[in-house]
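[recover] target loaded
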């Protein structure tokens, strides 16, 4: 089950599953992101056949014998995705060293173990995607996936149209390079301006830092969309599952690759939306042929 990092790949038979990094496999099984799994290993919470794992530099060929916090790791369920309307005042982490309330403290108890797709900081609100699949979360977060994050932003200060337009060329703030950002003014109310902001990267506190560099102090930030998924009318603090059809329509090709690439995945095939049954048009009602009786004679066929 466990393979050394230096193992010669040619020694594996074609029938055997390819060795996989333990952090990647456990992320696929929904334990957490790869970084979170590595942290669990550092804390001594991951064991293989009863022995604590000391390093994430480990390849495995199955989940058999692996436990996290004393509980066996099970094969991954089919990927699922939820929308969550995050309120202000919650941190997006499973455990906060400062003891602050977290997003995961406020989720309904019927949800399986989920992780967030990216983060929203303490004072940000709006759409936060949640999934039971760590590999899917990682793919959605990657800039090369190309998904646009959209925000409604209220900021104190004078919104200079020329400076906002210049953000489309990218920005450098305190030595950090930010990719192009689309920012337009929706309306001005007193000393505040409401902006529509769109970006593809999503670095830590990116919107706040970039707008601060052009004299705008963000005092409210609401994410309204992440790729094809939108906040819509979801109430603050509410959770709504995205249908399998919508999920696979948006991520089907990648999900299919995940299902076949990881030892943590279930063996069943991922659904193919193109093969799902479509509603057939209604046919006109046709009454059955019936026999009619004449008043004084035999039955007469219609």
């Amino acid at each position: 089950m466990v393979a050394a990092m230096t193992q010669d790949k040619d020694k594996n038979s074609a029938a055997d599953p390819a060795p996989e990094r333990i952090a990647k496999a456990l992320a696929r099984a929904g334990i957490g992101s790869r970084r979170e799994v590595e942290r669990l290993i550092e804390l001594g919470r991951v064991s293989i056949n009863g022995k604590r794992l000391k390093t994430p530099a480990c390849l495995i060929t199955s989940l058999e014998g692996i436990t996290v916090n004393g509980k066996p790791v099970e094969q991954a369920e089919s990927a699922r995705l939820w929308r969550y309307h995050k309120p202000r005042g919650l941190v997006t982490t499973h455990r906060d060293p400062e003891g602050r309330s977290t997003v995961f403290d406020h989720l309904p108890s019927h949800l399986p173990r989920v992780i967030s797709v990216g983060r929203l900081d303490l004072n940000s609100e709006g759409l936060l995607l949640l999934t039971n699949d760590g590999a899917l979360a990682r793919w959605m977060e990657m800039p090369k996936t190309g998904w646009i994050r959209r925000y409604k932003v209220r900021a104190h200060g004078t919104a200079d149209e020329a400076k906002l337009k210049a953000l489309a060329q990218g920005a450098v703030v305190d030595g950090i390079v930010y990719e192009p950002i689309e920012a337009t003014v929706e309306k001005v109310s007193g000393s505040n301006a409401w902006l529509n902001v769109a970006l593809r990267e999503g670095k830590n506190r990116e919107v706040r830092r970039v707008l601060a560099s052009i004299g705008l102090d963000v005092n409210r930030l609401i994410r309204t969309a992440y790729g094809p998924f939108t906040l819509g009318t979801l109430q603050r603090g509410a959770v709504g599952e995205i249908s399998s059809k919508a999920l696979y329509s948006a991520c089907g090709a990648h999900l299919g690759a995940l299902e076949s690439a990881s030892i943590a995945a279930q063996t069943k095939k991922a659904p193919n939306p193109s093969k799902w049954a479509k509603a057939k048009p209604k046919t006109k009602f046709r009454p059955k042929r019936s026999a009619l009786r004449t008043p004084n004679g035999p039955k007469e066929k219609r």
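[recover] notes: The helical segments are 22-28, 34-42, 134-141, 161-166, 206-212, 244-261.
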